Request: fold
Amino acid sequence: MLVVHVAMISRRNMKLAVALLAAMMVGAAGCGEKSSRSNFNFSQVSEGAISWSSEQDGEQTPGIDEAQVLYLEGLVVFWSDFPTPTATSIAYGSERDHLGGGGQFINADFGEIKFHYEMTGRSSGTVVVAGKSYDLAAGGLFLIAARQPTVKVRQLNCDLRNLEMTEKSLRLLMDSERAIAEFFRTAETPRITD
Reply:
């Protein structure tokens, strides 16, 4: 909770006070910036899936032109380079102060990537992707490159609270946060399971 005490302020200090207050209240967080994530009610969480495949002249970049995304709105996003069609699922159980669950991406050519999570706050808890554990305090955006011989995962700290979960919004996030496109562009070698 933000409490502001107002006192007699001279005219010359008024501009400074207004600028400081605006910076404290607005503070738009992007990837790499910490956001305030306390007192979250898990009973209002919704989950979903988004996928896209863009027809392009030339080669498609997996994860950019073709992607599968699973999410818990405002909390965590699993963005993979799995092609369409891919079987996906995400599920959770929640109480007011706790959330736990998991999901998976399954593709006939690239196999299966599983994840699960236990959260006790917006940014507190553990996420496990492809067998590796991540501290949610370091961010809720997980990029998954699964077409390589070894699955690669990158965790980014983005403010997901107001991110509209649509292809357009995710592409805009990718445009503003270069680390997303860089991750998928550098993950090139295909992995085919037998």
Summary: The longest strand covers residues 111-121. The radius of gyration is 19 Å. Strands lie at 47-53, 66-72, 76-80, 87-95, 98-107, 111-121, 124-129, 132-135, 141-145, 152-156. The chain has one domain: 42-186.
